[in-house]
Amino acid sequence: MRYKLLLLFFCVFIWILGFSQKKTEPSSHNFNIGIDNSGDKCASGAFFNPVAMDSLGVDFVVYHYRAPDGSVAEEVEKMKKLGADFQDAGLKVVVNVECGNWHLEMKSTDGYDWVRRPNNLHLFKFPLEVLKTLSNSDAVWGVQYDELEHSQITRNLSITIDHPGIELVSLAEPTGMNFQQADSAVFEGAHSLVEECCRYRNLYVLGEHVWPVLFHNFARAGITPVYKQMKENWSNVSASCALGASLQYNQELWACLDFWHYNSYPGHSAEDLWGNLMFAYWLGVDKAYVESMGKHMYEILDDDVSKIKLKERGKALSNFAKNYVPAHPRPYTFRDIEPEIAIIRFDDTEWGQSTKTYCTVNYKGGTIDYYWKDWLFGAYNLNTSIESEEWIKAWHTITHGKVKEGSLSWNAYNIYGGILYRSFAPSRGVVVFDDKVTIEHLGTVKLAFLCGLYMSETTLKDISYQVSNHGLTVVTSKRFAPVRFLSDYSTGTKVFKDGKGQWIITDDMSGNALKEIVRPFLGKENEIVLKFKGNKQVILTISPEGKRFSQIQTIF
Fold first, then answer.
1. Residue 276, Cβ neighbours under 10 Å: how many?
2. In the predicted model, what is the mean pLDDT of residues 115-137?
């Protein structure tokens, strides 16, 4: 009997030991944390450093695929090993194909062209054999098209820099089209890409955006929105744009916390990272990852890649993943948000680019002022207008003037030059929807801005219903206002009562008169307020420098 008990004890001990070595799911079941491991120091032939991943506490890795240096058959074997290695480590992997954005040509030794597409398009695509191999691995979550909206609207700027005069769009050639035709053409290109990537399995097809545009177009096509925090972005402005797309088109919502800042890397501190991790988590995103790591997250000891020591930024990420998230379970996701303010617009890809919009960059040992081209959708003939800039002015009003009237990006030196960067602007439950949004997403909205070139009849009908029956306040130009009010409006800002609600017709969405009228809807000048179903609320008090929070109050 004693021997049986000893044997039973031994078996239980072995089971516990084995269980403890397996990767466990994060305590908060509705959230995953990852890292873009570009710059990761790992053993020869390895795709990642398992010791570093374990120390950082991540669930998944965004792996940067490198330009192929062999045949398609060799790439098949390489990707087969990638899937197996991540599977063995208990990690998920997203394969990032940004390499295509930087190569004018990319051919395998057996002749497959990875980037040149028909009709003079330029877009990375895996050969079907490699795509099938990736689809066969349960460890592979999907494929990420990094900065796909950027390569479309700037006509692959990353290539043009080194090849002046070569300007290639990625998804569709919109030149010669009108705005709605261009929108449809880009959507069709995106939809076709998703269908190809999901030929063998329903993989994630992810789009990581530099600019806060095309989230809705891509989400409608099946691309999961990934918005950037930090970098040169207003973190919560980009989040609101992606959030609306994910809600409206039933996609997941991912956040990328990017350490690049203008020409500096790392351009954000460990404290900045912590503040942005807090925001992504309490916003309710499904998955968040940090870009990128390398020598700024950990150091190698004794030239042995299996021996690492976390640095300040690595410690912040590890503390968040291993301690903060398990200790603060999140009883909701972004799907439960109850928006209070909505910007509704046809997304014509305007973010503040114009003939005067530039940033200063390092180039060949010096600096140059690089002007962002005024090519909406990437079309030479589609340009900025007063109508397309309305939503930027709306953001200026909503954020108590923190977001500048001329641009949503700190990449506009002509607008933000000389101002110390801030990640966060005050806002109260702001979500950006496109011009096709319907009543199911508008039920809790108290203040709506109608902006841009077009608005669908269904959307206008649903908004009118919310005004008269549920007390919605709408800010609009004459274009989308009810016809019955126009005879009493000429210029300026004027309020028209309509049932339980009101229409505010204005010719200046950042004007002082409008700001005064909508002030009661906007909340405090140092807070981000998020409300969720079930009377849940999160209040994030923005610290004076604007890159972190002095207080996070959760009301559950």
1. 25
2. 97
